[in-house]
Write a structure and sequence with these properties.
- The chain is α/β, with parallel strands linked by helices.
- Helix content is 42%, strand content 17%.
- It has 11 helices and 16 strands.
- The chain has helices at residues 33-41, 48-63, 71-86, 94-111, 116-150, 178-187, 204-216, 228-234, 259-269, 300-303, 344-352; strands at residues 6-9, 12-16, 27-30, 159-163, 191-197, 220-223, 239-242, 246-248, 253-256, 273-276, 282-283, 304-305, 308-309, 322-325, 333-335, 340-341.
- Strands 6-5-4-7-10-15-16 form a 7-stranded mixed β-sheet, with helices on both faces.
- Strand 4 (159-163), helix 6 (178-187) and strand 5 (191-197) form a beta-alpha-beta unit.
- The radius of gyration is 20 Å and the shape is globular.
């Protein structure tokens, strides 16, 4: 793992500015929650696991320099700051999940009679553990996902896979979710080629996934978003492997815009479709995909490229950042750090076919 997008040293936080990649590699200092909210909202850092980690560590670095009169003030500050961080990008549930868990943890410490100093240290330690645990989680996802895919492949041959957006070291604490499966396949000597979409409008595939593939020496090929169907017909792929920012109770998933159409195309061509996400991305409070809030981004992300206007002035735009993939299209399964779940609706559909 050669890329480190989140640097946490001596309780100081720096994040790799992903808006500048691949042309320029530059880190942004995050000195507190306001900075954390800003780098998440501007997409200088993105990816559901990374959003939660950077959000929590931005709180940790702010707390490390603050003074409090008592533990109640610490608990109140933590709750308020976390609630604010959740608003930076509402679709990704990991930040919300972390906020709920950390708020509950501080409330428990308060009831136990913790001092202000001890509570601050406990919160910082909790945030640091979030960073460390993410890499372990990603490696488990990679192992389970690659094993599931390879169980479908006869003869021990190498596989070709297609991925969308960026789900690697740049979107996590390291290794990656969907790209973690790709890395695991490569480590096992079973990856022939990984195709990555450009992922318009922000080109996370062309800028970020391609950058990771080249940096780490993985056999990768970039395609236009509109070339996916032709790729499956002309070149053939063994699986589509994507990430998720939120998974509903019925296994519908929200991921980068364009994921849904890949799932439809994959089903038409009989290609297994995998969604890879940590269990913290599962939101059991939402019955289905229709309940997942979808963030809409500024029009200039569509109309401009690198600050240069490319769309006709005056044209209306619709720019949702995510779309919903129905569970019945997830024919490979949802891969978490503990298991590979084939949604019941997908299993029933496959049996029918």
């Amino acid at each position: 793992m050669s890329l480190e997008a989140i640097q946490w040293r001596a309780r100081q936080l720096r994040v790799l500015d992903q808006l500048l990649l691949p042309v320029k590699k530059e880190f942004v200092e995050v000195t507190g929650v306001e900075d954390g909210w800003r780098v998440i909202h501007k997409m200088q850092v993105r990816g559901a696991p990374a959003i939660a980690i950077v959000g929590c560590l931005s709180l940790a670095t702010e707390l490390s320099r603050a003074t409090f009169s008592d533990a109640a003030e610490v608990a109140s500050t933590v709750a308020q700051k976390l609630k604010y961080l959740v608003t930076a990008r509402p679709t990704a549930v990991n930040m919300e999940t972390a906020a709920k868990e950390l708020t509950a943890h501080t409330e428990k410490l308060l009831k136990e009679g913790s001092t202000a100093e001890k509570m601050v240290e406990e919160v910082i330690r909790w945030c640091e553990e979030l960073l460390e645990e993410d890499v372990r989680t990603n490696r488990k996802i990679g192992s389970l996902g690659s094993a599931s895919l390879l169980s479908r492949i006869s003869g021990g041959r190498k596989v070709r896979v297609l991925t969308h957006c960026n789900t690697g070291s740049l979107a996590t604490a390291g290794y990656g979710t969907a790209l973690g499966v790709v890395r695991a396949l490569h480590e096992a000597g079973r990856l022939e080629r990984v195709y990555c979409t450009e992922t318009r409008p922000y080109n996370q595939g062309a800028r970020l996934t391609a950058y990771e593939l080249v940096t780490d020496g993985l056999p990768g090929t970039l395609i236009c978003d509109s070339a996916a169907a032709a790729l499956m017909r002309e070149k053939g792929v063994d699986a589509v492997i994507v990430g998720a920012d939120r998974v509903a109770e019925n296994w519908d998933t929200a991921n980068k815009i364009g994921t849904y159409q890949l799932a439809v195309i994959a089903k038409h061509h009989g290609v297994p479709f995998y969604v890879c996400a940590p269990s913290t991305s599962i939101d059991r409070s939402l019955e289905g995909g229709a309940d997942i809030p979808i963030e809409e981004r500024p029009h200039r992300e569509m109309t401009d490229i690198a600050g240069v206007r490319v769309a006709a002035p005056g044209i209306a735009c619709w720019n949702p950042a995510f779309d919903i993939t129905p569970a019945e299209l997830i024919t490979g399964g949802v891969v978490t750090e503990t298991e590979v779940v084939l949604p019941p609706s997908a299993a029933a559909d496959l049996k029918k076919m």
